[in-house]
Amino acid sequence: MTTKQRIIQVGSYAGSPSANARLAESYDVFELWKHEDRKAALAEHGKGVTALVTSATFGCSAELMDALPDLKAICSWGVGYETIDVAAAKARGILVSNTPDVLTDCVADLAWGLLIAAARRIGQGERFVRAGQWGQVHGNIPLGMRVSGKKLGIVGLGRIGDAIARRGLGFDMEVRYHNRRQRDDVDYGYEANLVDLARWADFLIVATVGGPQTRHLVGREVLEALGPKGIVVNIARGPVIDETALVEALTSGKLGFAALDVFEHEPKVPEALRTGDQAVVLPHIGSATYETRMGMEDLMLANLKSYFETGTVVTPAE
Question: From the centroid of its chain, how far is CA 14?
């Protein structure tokens, strides 16, 4: 009988179809989330464990790494890894992997769904019909905004941002982007100043990485530059947008509309966003399709298997 490799699982993969079961089938899994005193549990069970699985929701702090002196690999489910202390991992020589590419198309698709829903007031129209108001009240919902042929600004032209931009070309849009650095492999216009990009754009889609370096990157000045008819879409990380400034811009009329899949303090959503007609709000479902979640699951397991067999991972975090 082959002895299973022991791993630490930081949290349950509730959003994945079968990840928990597949991990348990292949590995001796220590389920850290089931222990209230994590420090004591790791002191008792962590010795000799060289691999840990997690996600952006659960992360992996330097403190957690310190409690695992034999740790050599962190395999994360999802593309974001801002909650993993990558610097601490590199200092220890610990491999960190994520699951890029497999969720690119579904997240980009949702960005466009949010944009169209906001511009064409789809959510408001559906509520109008469901409430039995169509034909029962004078008039209809307010006019929406045309999507095709407009100016699209993208914050962060990585894999997902690029997929969003390519879809914009199909809507006959002019596309410009703001990035940490200008890319020489694309023809889209580059704006070094985010405020200038917002001032130019009709629609601004946020697709940048999360973490301290992008916290409140989209703040009051950017939102007001987008203007009273502008629409901001966020499928990146909630804290990239200053949520207080966003609510103030919407309620004051300085920003037209927000379409959001992520929030600064999830799962808390400000009442003004939940109840107003100037926002489309979703419960962080950018990657929530069966195909994508299975792809993420497969890649996370492939990274883990590769580490144990070769000492390397398939998709190291960049």
Answer: 17
User: Which residue out of 121, 176, 178, 237 is catalytically annotated?
Assistant: 237
Is 36 designated active site? Answer: no
Q: Domain 103-281: which topology? A: Rossmann fold (3.40.50)
Token digits for 281?
């709000």
Spot the catalytic one: 38, 45, 199, 284: 284
Query: Which part of the chain has CATH 3.40.50.720?
Result: 6-98+290-310, 103-281
Indicate if 31 belongs to the active site: no
Is residue 297 among the annotated active site residues? Answer: no
Which parts of the chain have pLDDT scores under 70?
Answer: 1-2
Distance from C-alpha of 148 to C-alpha of 45, rounded to nearest angstrom: 57
pLDDT at 199: 98
Give the Cα-Cα-Cα angle 246, 205, 100 (nearest 5 degrees): 120
> Given 266, 274, 291, 318, which residue is catalytic?
266
pLDDT by residue (tens digit) across 242-298? 999 999 999 999 999 999 999 999 999 999 999 999 999 999 999 999 999 999 999
In this prediction, residue 2 carries a pLDDT of 65
* Separation between Cα atoms, residue 269 and residue 266, nearest integer Å: 7
The fold of the 6-98+290-310 domain, in CATH, is Rossmann fold (3.40.50)
